[in-house]
Amino acid sequence: MTQDTKFHHGDATQNDSPIVEMKNIEKHFGNIIALAGVSFDVRPGECHCLLGDNGAGKSTFIKTMSGVHRPTKGEILFEGKPLNFATPRDAMEAGIATVFQDLAMIPLMSVTRNFFMGREPTTGRGLMKRFDVAKANEVTIEAMRQMGINLRGPDQAVGTLSGGERQTVAIARAVYFGAKVLILDEPTSALGVRQTSNVLATIDRVRKQGIGVVFISHNVRHALAVGDRFTVLNRGKTLGTAKRGEITPEELQDLMAGGQEMAALEGSLDGTI
Amino acid sequence: MTQDTKFHHGDATQNDSPIVEMKNIEKHFGNIIALAGVSFDVRPGECHCLLGDNGAGKSTFIKTMSGVHRPTKGEILFEGKPLNFATPRDAMEAGIATVFQDLAMIPLMSVTRNFFMGREPTTGRGLMKRFDVAKANEVTIEAMRQMGINLRGPDQAVGTLSGGERQTVAIARAVYFGAKVLILDEPTSALGVRQTSNVLATIDRVRKQGIGVVFISHNVRHALAVGDRFTVLNRGKTLGTAKRGEITPEELQDLMAGGQEMAALEGSLDGTI
Amino acid sequence: MNDTVQGAADERLKAEPLFAQLIKRPELGAVAGVILVVIFFSITADRSMFSLSGIINFMTPASQLGILAIGAALLMIGGEFDLSIGSMVAFSGLFFGVCAVTWHLPLVAAIPLTFIFAGAVGALSGNLVIRSGLPSFIVTLAFLFILRGLSLVGLKWATGGSTQLRGVREAVENDWLAPVFSGDAFPGLFAKLADMGLVATFNNGTPKVPGIPVEILWFVAIALIATYVLLRMPVGNWIFAAGGDRTAASNSGVPVNKVKVSLFMLTACCAALVAIITVMDAGSTDARRGFQKEFEAIIAAVVGGCLLTGGYGSAIGAFFGSIIFGMVVIGLTYTNFDQDWFQVFLGGMLLIAVMFNNAIRKRVTGER
Amino acid sequence: MNDTVQGAADERLKAEPLFAQLIKRPELGAVAGVILVVIFFSITADRSMFSLSGIINFMTPASQLGILAIGAALLMIGGEFDLSIGSMVAFSGLFFGVCAVTWHLPLVAAIPLTFIFAGAVGALSGNLVIRSGLPSFIVTLAFLFILRGLSLVGLKWATGGSTQLRGVREAVENDWLAPVFSGDAFPGLFAKLADMGLVATFNNGTPKVPGIPVEILWFVAIALIATYVLLRMPVGNWIFAAGGDRTAASNSGVPVNKVKVSLFMLTACCAALVAIITVMDAGSTDARRGFQKEFEAIIAAVVGGCLLTGGYGSAIGAFFGSIIFGMVVIGLTYTNFDQDWFQVFLGGMLLIAVMFNNAIRKRVTGER
Amino acid sequence: QDIVVVAHGQANDPFWSVVKNGAEQAAKDAGVNVDYRSPETFDMVAMSQLIDAAVNQEPAGLIVSIPDADALGPSIQRAVSAGIPVISINSGSDVSKGLGALLHVGQDEFDAGKSAGAKLAEMGGKTAICVNQEVGNVSLDLRCDGFAEGFGGSVTVLPTSNDPAEIEAKVAAALSSDTAIDTVMALGASTAGEPAVAAAKASGRDVNVASFDLSASFLQSIVDGDAAFAIDQQQFLQGYLSVNFMALHAKFGLMPGGNVPSGPNLITADKAAQVIELSAKGIR
Ligand SMILES: Nc1ncnc2c1ncn2[C@@H]1O[C@H](COP(=O)(O)OP(=O)(O)OP(=O)(O)O)[C@@H](O)[C@H]1O
Ligand SMILES: Nc1ncnc2c1ncn2[C@@H]1O[C@H](COP(=O)(O)OP(=O)(O)OP(=O)(O)O)[C@@H](O)[C@H]1O
Ligand SMILES: [Mg+2]
Ligand SMILES: [Mg+2]
């Protein structure tokens, strides 16, 4: 394996103003309080990791960012202007692409159709304007191959793909369409080692193009490998934000566990899970 | 964190005859060949890891083991006798519990009802025999707490749980009901660090009780932390089985990637993904 | 909220008023609709609608519908449809009529035979659905036509050419089992109450309400039992699971196929019960009995909060749904509206009742 | 399989015969059912059933049903139901009749008005479904009653008390637009063919088939357009997505609500088209027009392979489903079966056709 | 010899099943083959298609009911121009000749309603409800309209489904909310008539109940004095005579010179008893 290439981890372009800024977001579901005031921002060209225990509210938070939920309280600024995305489509048109934890795929539809769902490429003009199936198939197969998955064919139903294959479709789609901000909610959870390294490399590549990345993960090592800043959530609140280099893996892991004791396992895992 | 306890990794009781033995299993879906002849066995008290790239056929394989799919070809021996589970219920009654990759939960139903689905505890006799809701709630809350999740209440619908909370319900359920064999298909994919260490510790504990564990993971470090034997699948075929200690993490990772080149990432990840 | 064990207080939970807790349950949502409809009619309808005899008057058809609706609701929660319910009423009515009139069987034989027969037909359609993997909609639709057609053929055969089989009342008049399935319960009590002046009487002194029609008692009993089964029996859990996601349920060890076939049999038996009650009450059966009842039963179940996609709903909801439907259908007759507007009114009331109940629930529980 | 770009051969794929590839598609599954029904009738029915006039005879009702069924199929694929289709036929028929007869509007005004009107009602019910979050089943059910009731009220108002509005034929007779929506197309051609002896004639020399009824042309055209839209237009993808999983679709940027409302409007317009064609053909309309057509349309769509749960199906499937249904309904009259057995027969044939098509598909594609 | 009957009433409709029985009896007696066909519901479009289907088979004779001359006219004319002899039954006596039918057997629904209305008015009725179990079915609507005209007093149409329990409850509701109602006219004996009798009885009031068509139980109520009368169209004759005429026409070219009225025929208490048995067998 090539050992010679290292990621560039210079100062993220911290001086740029944030693309998206979220202030004191609260979100309640009936009597359940999922977010109790969270602030967060993403700058162009940085990878901001959102970490935290299960049920901390990470997915709920990025869903308010991508227009799925409307915050119960709090303010969202997009490129400096207050904004409320009414639908995910609005967020997408503003340039935010998201890989949701549940992937947002239609099991009965083919890979290609899922890939381009909502943003189909067309060919022809006027009345003859139609879904460009050939091009769509080509793009899909190619995007998947880049992520390390060789599809049998682009018309296999997504419901019959393996867990990792499905997750890869969602990631490839978001990367393809992510114009300004790319949000990834545990994108590597079901991926094989090869695919995982591809995704991490992709995050790095995308960031270098000046896109802001929000990366949610439970894997400290993955977060540290690509992250520029780290924000930790716990029980619906922020525990704080750290910059790359300001925090050790062990400290970060402790924060992610919500400060609670972990089961005895360290011996065989070299410090981090 | 406690550093003093180490797992016991003595010879798994390799001399015992296997609980489940699968010989030359093939599985076709229409014209798609998912498994092209895979052999595998689990012995009491061992943790046998099933590894492999995305789409290699791991989930399909364990689904034939737990009675969901009927193999197209091949033989299944349970405690030495040829057997074909007609339904997952049969497999369960024989003592096999499974955490499926898609978790097999009903989103609209409460946590407790999902936990005990199919195997409800009852109280009373005769006509008064009824679902013992109080006991079920208690067991659920307690089992979840042991895994590191504090539920708000046992009657929250599973569909509104976070990804990791949901996965924990599935694991806790399988551990509670797994009598002879426990099959875990990527159980830690959505878990936080604390929950992950709990699950790994649980696998260890369960194995010591003489239960056979089948553990699927994409995380080399997790596999090495608890596995006794490692079988690697690639494109529907076995690449071979190795015992603990006979293989280095790097070799294993190479096998899991299907022998293909990985993207350049090693620098920041200390060798394994 | 009796499923709850509350641990230590959790800062991630807001306090929830009891009312909100109650109205969240599918069982109780439909109550809001009932209240609305009652208010509407107390304003617009003749006072006699909510007199004792008026209530019994609309509760009788509501009960007959409700028995079907509860069966349909259970089946819908289990993820399937039965469109053959209405035809089944006609068909098992015919079967029962033939048992009683043509074969002169006593009720103690005729009634169990009818149930066995209906159950067998239900098992047949259920097995067809399971085995073929076809949607139950299409399979039971075929049964809708087949059973309706067989009822006609059977009636003509049994009567020598007519579409109406009569003489059931005479045949069962003196059977000891008859009071369980027909007529009014507690006549003595009501006579006494009338004497005491608690129940209104006709001029000749007989009480206006001679008793509670047995179907109402059956209806209430079945609603209670079904609720108990759904919420407190393992099989209730299986029904929810089978309807919620059949693969997940089956993978978790729920015997999905058995559950579904049993539900088909249950719905068929509900239809048979309604058939027995109505045939004995009317004394006759004809080829059009139960026409479109499958439709009304599904309406009542959906009004009561069942999801068409399965996995969610309640028997109590179907109970109130049937009452809403029964009240609206009969209620207009008590008002001064032009009867030509009947269907407009029926549709409008249904819509308003469901929207109201929905709005209340959203408002109270803060969903959006 | 025109969606496929095949890369290098993959050892994880078995070769698949063309036939298997074709029958896998929802579009073509229903063909097996059609073939079975044709075989059945060629054995049991009078020869005239498959003469040119016989085919046109069963294709006419099949087309009228099919236009509705294609609309219903698109809506079902989009995840919703419309139970008000049948009532919509009556209601827009009345509206059209009033335009033509009472207001003496020329067709060029009456027809667009009718479509606009129907579309508006469709938009209304669609918006109610979306806004309230209620199942479309219950909302459109309310519309079923409301529109049916309004048709009755409207008819009485328009005719001064009757439930039948007559005189449409006379009112539109000489309108230049009439041939597009009524009567037979290509009469000249058929007359010539008859002269040449290619089309059978009655004893008096007029051709048995004066032309192709326009509804058949509409039916075929709509089926083709709908198929094109579903498979080759972005909005087709949106329809599948909206029906497959509305949350996932919406999260992926599909404008789910707009898609659904448009589909409701489309179904309403299909109903209006059928209303216009049948009212002009019959020359009259009454309060029972289109009764239970919603039901038949859904049957045809399901027979043609649409899933009730949404997200799967095809317009071509609904096309063949309607033909199966039309053929079975009319076919019986060409056989010697007693009308009493009609429903048994209809149910049986439906069941067999669907099971057969299902069995063939499973056998061929190796599903289980 | 094939004769086809296309009627607007279904084979499972109590009224039409008697027509069908009559037609079958005639077929047996005359040695011809008869097919009875009807649309699944009251549906004029479907009915015209059934007539077309019948014409395609070129039967020896076609017998139709004509509840909507506009909708059915073209199909009937097509039959006539194809040289198929046509007889109309039941409804359409006014348009039958114009469409080319040889003759009409039956009685107009409107006239039957009118005579029933007149009779009930004569019995002292002032306020009536007309129980219609299939609103929009034009032939039933005509019965109500005729009744209203003959009755003269106030008439309200009570729309119902054809579920006996619902009809009984609705009639009871109408009676209890409007105490002026003294007459109930049901449009079908077994579906609407019997429950109406039960409701009237339970109300404890003196209400005249009459019904169209016959059913054994309703006739029994007439005998018992719970119901006033039933209007019999003797629809058996509509089926029997039309088929018989058609068979004779096919064999010998015979055809009566004018329309044959099959009713109306009021069945009151004195005649009811003797009809019960026949009614139970589907002949009356
Ligand atoms: N629709 C909802 N209704 C009620 N509660 C909800 C809903 N969605 C989320 N929650 C609750 O809010 C909390 C936060 O959920 P969220 O999915 O955001 O967690 P997360 O941080 O993404 O966890 P994970 O790492 O396990 O994915 C959870 O405890 C969950 O139970
Ligand atoms: N029902 C099915 N129909 C068709 N193909 C299927 C079906 N189920 C699985 N497959 C195919 O079989 C292959 C193996 O899938 P499987 O889910 O077993 O992979 P896996 O090893 O579990 O992968 P992952 O690590 O991503 O979960 C995949 O390529 C998938 O596309
Ligand atoms: Mg999450
Ligand atoms: Mg897998």
Automatic annotation (TrEMBL), chains A, B:
ATP-binding as UniProt keyword: yes
Sorted UniProt keywords: ATP-binding, Nucleotide-binding
PROSITE patterns attached to this UniProt entry: ABC_TRANSPORTER_2
Ranges that cross the membrane: none
Xref: CDD domains: ABC_Carb_Monos_I
Gene3D superfamilies with a match to the protein in the record: P-loop containing nucleotide triphosphate hydrolases (3.40.50.300)
One protein family per Pfam: ABC_tran
InterPro entries assigned to the protein according to its UniProt record, in alphabetical order: AAA+_ATPase, ABC_carbohydrate_import_ATPase, ABC_transporter-like_ATP-bd, P-loop_NTPase
Domain ABC transporter: 20-260
Gene Ontology MF terms in the entry: ATP binding; ATP hydrolysis activity
Entry keyword annotation includes ATP-binding: yes
Identification of the protein by name: ABC transporter ATP-binding protein
Organism per entry: Celeribacter baekdonensis B30
Native organism taxonomy: Bacteria, Pseudomonadati, Pseudomonadota, Alphaproteobacteria, Rhodobacterales
TrEMBL record, chains C, D:
Matches recorded under InterPro entries: ABC_transp_permease
Domain of life: Bacteria
UniProt keyword Transport, yes or no: yes
Compartment(s) where it occurs, according to its Swiss-Prot or TrEMBL record: Cell membrane
Predominant cellular place of this UniProt entry's protein: membrane
Entry keywords, A to Z: Cell inner membrane, Cell membrane, Membrane, Sugar transport, Transmembrane, Transmembrane helix, Transport
Pfam families for this protein: BPD_transp_2 (PF02653)
Membrane topology of the entry: Multi-pass membrane protein
Extent of the signal sequence: none
Record carries keyword Zinc: no
Residues spanning the membrane: 28-46, 58-77, 83-103, 110-130, 136-159, 216-241, 261-280, 301-329, 341-360
GO cellular component: plasma membrane
GO molecular-function terms, A-Z: transmembrane transporter activity
Function recorded in the entry: Part of the binding-protein-dependent transport system for D-xylose. Probably responsible for the translocation of the substrate across the membrane.
Xref: PANTHER family: ABC TRANSPORTER PERMEASE PROTEIN YPHD-RELATED-RELATED (PTHR32196), XYLOSE TRANSPORT SYSTEM PERMEASE PROTEIN XYLH (PTHR32196:SF32)
Official protein name in the record: Xylose transport system permease protein XylH
Organism: Celeribacter baekdonensis B30
